[in-house]
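Next up, sample data.

:::
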Amino acid sequence: MRYTSLLLVFGCLAACGRASDPRATANGSEADRPATSYDRQLVFVSDSARPPVAAVFHFTAAGGADSVPRTARAWLERDSAWTPVLGMTWTGAPMREPWRLVPHGSLRLVVGDGDELEALVYRAPDGFRLRPSPIIADWSPTATARFRLREAEFLLPGDRFAGMLLDIQTLTVEPDSGALNEAFLTDGNELHLVIATPEASAESSPAVRAWLRLRGGEETWDAVSLARDSARAAWRLTEPGRSLSGMFHTLGRELVLAPEPTAPQDSAAVRIHVVTGWVELRGERHDVIGVVRRGTR
């Protein structure tokens, strides 16, 4: 697989500290617990197409005792233009595993051993098929955030793209503590980097952490920064010890998404960009291309 890279930044995936385990909200009365949204996102970026092809999937399930409002949405970025390719809203029964994807209408799932997702299929004339590989790497910085890395194939009518997929599970609890960012970087082969701000409290700023998997080894950072330079339409990545840095520039148009109907009140809107640039790890520079997602208020 070619050594391309991607950056994926994910916004407003915060959780308050009232529950040590997100599943704890399944007990108690509606009045006793805050509104919750179990979010699962799949983000795909091709490893060889020029310009790159990206797809963003967003599934939500709102907490509820008797019924669960759900959404399933997806957008495709191709030739510097975003196109919605999936949009569904429905209500279903509650499940013991709130992040599990469920079929609905023309949206079908193929599930293997251990309930692992093997294919996500949208049966329509302009539909698609997403085929993830088994999990390559798994990082859970808190009880409310989990990041899983996979290879994947994304098939469109008449086209097939190979690339990398980030599978994200998060819990949003009302009141939301702010518009936070997550980031994922990969060269499509042996370098995989996740930057996350998974939780915050009223007493402290959100911790920005990073996890790196390179050539089978792993390393973590307790503090990194990803700042936007609006004047240059760019993002700058820094780390206090100067072992990690980067610069990314926006390509094409941004995709602006309003909060999902299942999201807690005052949730942030999201802006998604395709970017290109570089990352430097201890003096070794890697050219990058990928997707940026940030929460805004």
User: Anything to note?
Assistant: The longest strand covers residues 159-173. The radius of gyration is 18 Å. Residues 44 and 165 are 5 Å apart (CA to CA). Confidence is low (pLDDT under 50) at residues 1-9, 11-34, 175-180, 200-204.
